[in-house]
């Protein structure tokens, strides 16, 4: 059950859901590479995070009843995982009936739930999407790239933007100002 994941890994309760052990199941898609007496190469922060996220997702699937192999997971499993992670979020998202709904800076505390921030979920999905393909998954069957996941992320983004009273606008690239020729020299007398 999902509670077993938290009991087996108490770090999750503190919001650190990335620190999980590798799943015990073997699949055609590797859950995590095993290092045997080989010094681990120094990974970038992104690569380390991507590896931890992949291990976390594999562990989540292995702890389901019945367990699901990573190769057999679908976008429904990914959505379930993202909703499961919501309980460990640290972002206050005001519900519609809250007196602070729509205020960017609420003046006081409220009982609204803490959720995963949209940006965190979006980055997580991006890392897992890349990890799926790096671990043997075919791009055309990548559950992290499914339309349902994009719609879910858009819905979370819009809901959180409304709750804060801030509309989400995609940042537009600023075009560099065209270089104008230097002004002509003053006339000589």
UniProtKB/TrEMBL annotation:
Biased composition (Pro residues): 178-189
Chief site of localization: nucleus
Subcellular localization: Nucleus
Protein name: ALOG domain-containing protein
Entry keyword DNA-binding: yes
Keyword list, A-Z: Developmental protein, DNA-binding, Nucleus, Transcription, Transcription regulation
Record carries keyword Transcription regulation: yes
Entry GO terms, CC: nucleus
GO MF term list: DNA binding
Record InterPro entries: ALOG, ALOG_dom
UniProt-annotated stretches for the region Disordered: 164-189
A Pfam family recorded for this sequence: ALOG_dom
Top-level division of the source organism's lineage: Eukaryota
Species whose genome carries this gene: Zingiber officinale (Ginger)
Family of this protein: Belongs to the plant homeotic and developmental regulators ALOG protein family.
Domain ALOG: 45-172
UniProt GO BP: mRNA transcription; response to light stimulus
């Amino acid at each position: 059950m999902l509670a077993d994941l938290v009991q087996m890994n108490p770090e999750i309760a503190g919001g650190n859901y990335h620190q999980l052990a590798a799943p015990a199941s073997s699949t055609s898609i590797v859950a995590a590479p095993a290092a045997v007496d080989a010094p681990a190469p120094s990974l970038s922060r992104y690569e380390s995070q991507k590896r931890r996220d992949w291990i976390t997702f594999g562990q989540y699937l292995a702890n389901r009843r019945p367990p699901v192999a990573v190769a057999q997971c679908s976008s429904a499993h990914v959505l379930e995982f993202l909703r499961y992670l919501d309980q460990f979020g640290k972002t206050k998202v005001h519900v519609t009936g809250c007196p602070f709904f729509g205020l960017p800076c609420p003046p006081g505390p409220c009982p609204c739930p803490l959720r995963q921030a949209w940006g965190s979920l979006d980055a997580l999905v991006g890392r897992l999407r890349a990890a799926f393909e790096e671990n043997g998954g075919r791009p055309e069957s990548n559950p992290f790239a499914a339309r349902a996941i994009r719609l879910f992320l858009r819905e979370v983004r819009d809901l959180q933007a409304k709750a804060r009273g801030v509309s989400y606008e995609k940042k537009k690239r600023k075009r560099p100002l065209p270089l104008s020729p230097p002004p002509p020299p003053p006339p000589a007398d």
